[in-house]
Amino acid sequence: MPNDDTSNYKYVFVCGLHRSGTGMLARNIARLEDCTGFQNTGVLQDEGQYLQDVYPPDREYGGVGAFGFDPRAHVTETSDLLTRENIATLRASWHAYWDNSKTIFVEKTPANLLMTRFLQAGFPNSHFVVIKRHPIPVGMAAQKWKVNVKSLHTMFEHWLHCHGLYEQDKEYLKHLYELKYEDYVENPDKYHAELATFIGTRVPERPKKDRSRTVLQWPNPYGLCVPERTMEKASADYNQKYFDRWYHLLRNSPLKGYYRYLAWKYEPKFATYGYSLTKGFELSEAVLHHRGKLSDAIGAFYCHAADAYTLMVRSRIQGKAYIKRQLSARLPEPLKLKIKHIRRRLSLSKNQPDVV
Asked: Do 204 and 269 lie in a common domain?
């Protein structure tokens, strides 16, 4: 930081579960006038949690689909971490990666969803942007990270648990803007204008020329290429492919009993947030009612079986990752460099996976 006068600074914290669109949203907010976000940090998604050592990153609490279950992840203004020294350290750590010629500083970390009250207490004039996304794509997209894969019902429970805690915390927030991913991708210009007004700035004109930069992301070892100044846009197609998969699982999967049980069990809970697991999927009330009768008898079995399977997958993947780390530590540098070049060529020869 150039000086200790932060009276004119604004801090914008983007909050939302993994795979909710927080990365794209935060980068777009950082493209507004007089705003700055993290760039070229060398950490995953340029997230602030990896650029500081005041509090543990969410992986210490179980990572994707699990961190919210750990009570330590829910941090408020009563936390012992809230000291003058810690806040000064946190601010200095982040300002080292912001453009300090600007006055609006944007930080994004999924676990922010459970840290809003702590961040508000530590950063004067902080603003919070909270994005929600339908639990089906959130749960299924996160399951792609097999090194930490969780069963779908666990992902649903985590979604509800984290958003439930946030609903309690938001009553304490002074500056809050909420939106849904589904609405944002349908009309991003509208939300960019509203967000600019919310934080007291303007949407810049679209640049005639631009350049790109790379954001490190898992599992792509070579990162995501994003524009420097041009607003990123996503499509509703990203959600639709997960809805299509959910439709198939409900109707055609050999394990459709498990998925219908989830639809019956979680439908009323997600309905309070404006989301549905049954509407539009041609799942009749009769089928759901029948599944409800069976839930006490077989529901627990379905869930235990799903948990056992995902545990097996995690163990196998984590075992391979451990072996790979050990081998990498012992390989000579010239050989590792050659392997890296080969992997890069293979990666570039394939179509890149879609990323939200």
From this structure: no
> What global pTM score does this model have?
0.85
CATH at 131:
3.40.50.300
Ramachandran category for residue 168: left, alpha or beta (phi over 0 → left; psi -120 to 50 → alpha): alpha
Query: For 180-198, how does the pLDDT look when each residue is reduced to its tens digit (9 = 90+)?
Result: 999 999 999 999 999 999 9
Core vs surface per residue 305-343: b (16+ CB within 10 A) or e: ebeeebeeeeeeeeeeeeeeeeeeeeeeeeeeeeeeeee
Location of structure tokens 């069976």 = 294
Q: Which residue has the tokens 């990498």?
A: 328
316-to-68, 109, 134, 320 alpha-carbon distances in Å: 24, 28, 29, 6
Domain that includes residue 214, residue range: 10-227
- pLDDT for the residue 131: 98
Q: Which residues pair with 107 in a beta bridge?
A: 13
DSSP 8-state assignment for residue 126: E
pLDDT-derived band at 286, boundaries 50, 70, 90 = low
Q: How many Å apart are CA 43 and CA 317, to the nearest integer? A: 22
Residue 232 in any domain: the answer is no
Residue 5 belongs to some domain of the structure = no
DSSP 350: S
pLDDT higher than threshold 70 for residue 32: yes
Q: How confident is the model at residue 284 (pLDDT cuts 50, 70, 90)?
A: low
pLDDT, mean of residues 328-342: 67
Of 189-203, 298-312, 334-348, the range with the highest mean pLDDT is 189-203
Which among 208, 227, 246 is the end of a domain? 227
Q: How many independent structural domains does the chain possess? A: 2
CA distance 213 to 341: 20
What is the 3-state composition of the chain as percent helix, strand, coil, each rounded to the nearest 5?
Answer: 55, 10, 35
Confirm whether 148 is domain-assigned: yes
